[in-house]
UniProtKB/TrEMBL annotation:
It is found in: Cell membrane. This is MFS transporter. The keyword Aminoacyl-tRNA synthetase does not apply. Residues 6-401 form the Major facilitator superfamily (MFS) profile domain. One of its GO terms (cellular component) is plasma membrane. Its main location: membrane. SUPFAM superfamilies: MFS general substrate transporter (SSF103473). The keyword Translocase does not apply. GO terms for molecular function: transmembrane transporter activity.
């Protein structure tokens, strides 16, 4: 029972992180009014969030390996609660942007810190499923921002709503300090001081392990499409290019969360039972994403609603698919550097998402703004990312398999000598 209590406490911290991540998205109109700015400048918040999140992954991973999950989860909670508290009271746009960056920094360390708890507290056969459950249940934070947070914002105003979120963060910090333990015996971290050169050497060693890079390209190829769709270009595409109402577009995004939750359980069970077929599953998810988009983009006009439903469901499986990347990191890295490896894996999808969001913006502006034809061209940039990811997966998978064979041969030789 203790493992589930520790994991649930860490999960609560991640749910709060997702809540903090998505509050500004649901309060966009209120933010525009409060900071006297237009939607163009407000989109800076989204880009900034992804930049900070992706850029902080490797430093967060290094700190995680040194100080452990408990310290990083608590520190992330302090950063996010502080940032939300500043947002609650400031009316200055530069201050709000800085506060949002602090929230993004706290968000960046939380997810991989919770993930690192899993292999230490659960049996290996349970790890893939619990890893998936972490990602799935964390999305409850998005529900919290869309329902109770938005209700408080509407009824009681900006300050009360953001103070309430900060207070929930403080509760999560207290529970983390009281309940979370890095491992059952409490020994996982390496607090010995290391030089910058040693740290960089360790980071390089982790990256050069083929399993780490296999996880990186797995995360890249599966996650970026649904992330870009949900965070920035999905609603404009559905409403402007496909002619749907805002209500229907919102329903499709809600369906996306439901599809991710249901498929996540299946992916977790499959990877737990068939660990040697994980890469095949990942390639199948990437292929299904590319196929669904190809069918929609090949149409000369707006797609029928049923096809858009299929598209949203298919790309939503990419979220659970990206979690397989963390399983690769766990398989091919020792526990002493697992945090660094998970940080590197987590960079893959967010780095691809950031580049695609920016590139699509450039294409849309160059081709005449938000229109059916402009979006049709912009979405084709996805094929570049898929191509890079698939090549990366195939190359690193071959190297990872070769490494496993060498390790098996070495173990067999040592057994014979004994």
């Amino acid at each position: 029972m203790r493992p589930w209590i520790v994991w649930t406490t860490g999960l609560l911290a991640y749910i709060v992180a997702v809540l903090d991540r998505t509050t500004l998205g649901v309060s966009g109109l209120a933010a525009a009014d409060r900071f006297s700015t237009g939607p163009g400048l407000l989109s800076t918040f989204v880009v900034l969030q992804v930049v900070v999140y992706a850029g902080a992954q490797i430093p967060a991973g290094v700190l995680l390996d040194r100080f452990g999950s408990k310290a990083l989860i608590a520190a992330g909670g302090v950063l996010m609660a502080s940032g939300q508290l500043v947002l609650a009271f400031t009316e200055s746009l530069p201050t709000a942007i800085a506060a949002r960056a602090v929230v993004g920094l706290g968000d960046a360390v939380t997810f991989i810190s919770v993930l690192r708890l899993v292999p230490h507290w659960f049996a290996m056969r349970q790890v893939p499923l619990v890893t998936q459950l972490t990602g799935i249940c964390g999305q409850l934070g998005q529900v919290l921002s869309a329902v109770p947070f938005l209700a408080v914002l509407t009824a009681m105003g900006w300050t009360v709503a953001y103070v309430s979120v900060a207070a929930l963060g403080v509760l999560s910090i207290v529970l983390t300090l009281a309940v979370v333990k890095n491992t059952p015996d409490g020994t996982t971290t390496t607090r010995e001081p290391t030089s910058v050169r040693d740290t960089l050497s360790s980071v390089k060693t982790v990256w050069l392990r083929p399993g780490t890079r296999l996880g990186f390209f797995t995360h890249m190829g599966t996650q970026f499409s649904v992330t870009v769709f949900a965070l920035m270009w999905g609603v404009p595409y559905l409403t402007v290019a496909q002619g749907l109402s805002a209500g229907v577009a919102g329903a499709l995004l809600t369906m996306s969360v439901a599809a991710a939750i249901s498929s996540g359980v299946l992916v977790g069970v499959f990877t737990g039972r068939h660990p040697h077929r994980r890469s095949r599953l990942v390639l199948a998810i990437i292929a299904s994403n590319a196929l669904a988009w190809s069918v929609v983009l090949a149409l000369p006009g707006p797609a029928p609603l049923w096809l858009l439903v299929v598209l949203v469901v298919v790309i939503s499986v990419g979220g659970p698919g990206s979690m397989v990347g963390f399983d690769f990191a766990r398989t091919f890295n020792p526990s002493t550097t697992l945090g660094t490896a998970q940080g590197m894996v987590n960079m893959g999808g967010f780095l691809a998402s950031l580049l695609l969001m920016q590139a699509m913006g450039v294409i849309l502006e160059a081709t005449g703004g938000l229109s059916f034809d402009s979006f049709r061209i912009a979405w084709t940039l996805q094929y570049v990312v898929w191509s890079v990811a698939v090549v990366g997966i195939l190359v690193t998978r071959r190297k990872a398999r070769r490494l496993l064979r060498l390790q098996d041969d070495r173990s067999l030789l040592e057994g014979i000598e004994k």
